[in-house]
Specification:
Blueprint: H1 6-21, H2 29-36, H3 40-52, E1 56-59, E2 65-68, H4 77-85, H5 109-125, H6 128-132, H7 140-146, H8 150-153
Antiparallel strand pairs: 1-2
């Protein structure tokens, strides 16, 4: 099953929190972890990874913490997930690095590649700003993913 890691989940939570508080102040790992009941040590590691990929910047001093480096509407969920976990793959055979004994005879490699590509497109479309909206409506990209033409996958 395709599933985000706990760290990627926490990365998205942190980015949403920072987006919601960006006009007020920089947020510490402790503040974010306390707000969501997450380990402060793990949140600090997640924020360090996000900083390493220039998605957040650390601000030092008495009012220190982390802040987004750019507008949340310009940061995709895919950027956050990739910064934490590396490339998003549903199976290793969809990359040039992955090959298995059945590669030459495999009947699902191409459909799985298209599924992986669709997931990547959706994650690239969903932004931190959309995740931060207080609305019950799902982001358009999620609705589009639910409506994937199943017949297109069998082509």
């Amino acid at each position: 099953m395709f599933k985000l890691s706990k760290k990627a989940d926490y990365g998205l939570i942190a980015m949403k929190h920072l987006a919601n508080h960006r006009e007020q102040h920089a947020c510490s790992a402790n503040e974010i972890s306390e707000e969501y009941g997450i380990s402060a040590t793990l949140m600090a590691k997640v924020l360090q990874k996000l900083a390493k990929h220039s998605l957040v910047a650390a601000k030092h001093g008495a009012t220190g913490g982390y802040q987004l480096t750019k507008d949340p509407a310009r940061i995709s969920a895919l950027e956050v997930i990739t910064a934490i976990d590396g490339p998003v793959l549903i199976t290793s055979c969809v990359t040039s690095h992955g090959a298995c004994d059945a590669t030459d005879r495999c009947s699902v490699k191409e459909p799985l590649r298209r599924v992986n590509e669709s997931i990547m497109e959706v994650l690239q479309t969903v932004t931190v700003a959309q995740l931060s909206e207080d609305t019950q409506q799902e982001p358009r990209a999620f609705v589009e993913l639910k409506g994937i033409d199943h017949l297109a996958l069998s082509r």
